Amino acid sequence: FLRNNPKMLNCQLNRESARRSWMDLRKILHQYEGPRKTWEQWRKVWRDIRTLTKAKYLYVVKHYTNDKLHETLTAFSMFGENDKIIRETLGIKPKGQQGLPAKSSRKVQRTILRKVVKPKHETPLVHVKQEPNTENEDYQQDAEAENDPFATLDYNYDHTITFCDTHPNAELRERSQMEFKNNVTEEPSHECSTDKGVDALVKMGQDLMEYFRQKSKEDELFRQEQLRLMRVQTEAIQSIANSLEKMKK
What we know:
Elements lengths: L5 H4 L5 H15 L9 H25 L5 H9 L3 H10 L14 H12 L9 E3 L8 H11 L5 E3 L5 E3 L6 H13 L1 E3 L4 H58 L1
Antiparallel strand pairs: 1-4, 2-3
Protein name: Regulatory protein zeste
């Protein structure tokens, strides 16, 4: 009836036209089983239903944003079939197909993680020239002596290298050894990057705890709002019942 009478739906009728329309609607409603009311009472019932539907929709839109797409769709799914029909009749349509613009939960999770974890920058390798006497000099010399059958190396307690005089290329070999020891490539220390990684994980844990704490608080508010709406509905039903009792008397 309201769809066929958009002016009545949008409250664009004058007082007399509205009264006649509600009387016609009352006759239609009384053809079915159920309560019997005056046209003023039916109008009050419709206004209560309309106000309650708008309040439920606005609450969901306000408390469930794009960052909580899954919770938003769950909240919309809690609407009954009558709520959906009334919402569509009033022209209150959710954005997008199911309440909000389409956005995959995986993308939402990536967005949250990007806010929490900063990208880790790799430290480039640094080539450092050192003095001949290094801590691992004796280990390098042992390896060279085992792998080179033409070199005979004698170690003394001062960690110096003495080539046998019988070696024909002793001078060339010694110069090569010194050049090898003077060009040592070391990898950088990762203590700095490790500390940054630990700090990022701690920050991520703190942010996640805050997120779940905030979500729990919002869920509690939503439950409280549902209870309040149920009380409003109960009071409206009680008011209608009282009116019916007065009419019978």
